[in-house]
Structure formats: structure tokens, C-alpha cells
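Notes from hallway chat w/ T.B., transcribed later so I don't forget. T.B. wanted the structure written out for a chain they're using in a teaching module, and asked if we could keep both sequence and C-alpha cells in one place. Agreed to drop them here.
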Amino acid sequence: MTTPRPLRATALAATALAALHSAPVVSTFGPLRNRVMPRLSGRGRPDHVALTFDDGPDPLSTPFFLRLLDRRGVRATFFLLGSEAHRSPGLVREIAAAGHEIGIHGWLHRPLLLRGPRATHDDLARARDTVAAITGGRPTLFRPPYGVMSTAAHLAARRLGLTPVLWTCWGEDWRARATPESVHRTVTSDLDGGGTVLLHDSDCTSAPGAWRSALGALPGILDTCEQRGYEVGPLWDHGWPGGAVGHDAPAQPAWGRARPRS
């Protein structure tokens, strides 16, 4: 039985649209992304390492990271889930008041690849506007859940004035078997100047208590960066061709400016 031509055309069109929507998923493959997509990878100036955290804020864990970073005189970028920010607005303001940069990680930690254009836009807009209402400044950076982009996510980010940024190395700190030693080893094996480090300050999408491995590894990661001659800071200090991350979006609010190191 031959398939009617209109049905074949419809099927081909649907396949083409699905392929277009999912095409950016290729950026999930780290080695390829780091080589051919330096901007999306968060590749910056060679004497600097950008330190970033995902999945917060969490009142049970994030304050430990804030205290450690304050003791070390280091600022970082926190990619917040809008739903978690809504639950802990005081903690969001604490992150901002400490001089850290705030980006968004979406409203819910769900794969954007499974969402259509409208749902993707609404998710990012809700997260952006929630953080803006809490802090008084509009975020300009965005990291997708699981690091998986879609065409709809790229289009929504552009419309909302958000710059997508992934990472060049991570600690695999979400795993139940992770330890401070394994996180440190995994991060530093791929760490180089201009890189962006991904850690998690919350276990809301990780193994229970997994954040403790990231926290335990953090002093050693900072020590390694210092030994290798790398300055550590947020993405807005990272820089890349065309300007620093996020500076081509709307002006940074007062809390979004780098502070002198103590």
C-alpha cells in the first residue's frame, strides 16, 4: 500500500521540524563544544577561570558555599532555578549582596528538548522575572538544565536578552559515589586557563547530600587554580572576544558589578 503524498509530505515536514528543534543538542558533547563553540562553552581570558554553580538556591547547602567563598575572597556565578529562588528569596538576596553574579537555570529542572517554543519561552521568562523581582536587577546569563540546548531555547534566550553559557569542565559532583577527592580530580584533569567550572550548590536534582562532595572539593580546586596562576571569579570577569560575558545584554545592576578582592 502506497502512503498518500500529503501524508508523506506531512511526515517529512514533522521530521524536519524535529531535527531543527533538536539540532543544538550536539553542543552537549563537551569535547566538540569546547573546540568549535568557545563562546557557548564559556571560554574566556587565559589567565582566568570562571567558577559557576547550578541548581540553587538551597537554604540547607548554599550558605556553606557562600561562607567558604567569602573566606577565600572569591566571587562566582550562581545559575538559579526560578522555582527555588521563589521559595528562598532571602537567600537569593544574600547571594547578590555578597557580590556574586546571578544567572538563571530555568524555572524547573526539566529538559528543554522536550518542550515547545512557547513553553520554553515561558519557563525562561518566569525564572528571569522572578530573580529580577527579588534582586532588582535582570539576569543576563542562562544555563539550560542538563546543558541541553534546543533551537527554541536559543530563540527564547535571544528574545529575553539572555546569553547561554555551558562549561568546559565539571566535577560530576551530582553522583552518589562522588567524593571531594573525585570531584577535585575530575575538575582539575580538564582545567585550563580560560575554562569555566561547573559545580552544584544544591542536591535538588542530584543524589541526596551530593553537594557535600562539591563543597569538600572546592578549597582544593581554588588552591590548584592559584598554583597554576589562574585568577578565579564570575563569568562577568571572564571576558571573551566582543566583551565580557553578559555585558552585551541590558546594563548590569548594582549587585552585578565586580567587587574588589579582599
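Follow-up for T.B.: Strands lie at 48-56, 77-80, 101-104, 141-142, 163-164, 169-170, 196-200, 231-233. Might be a good example for the class.
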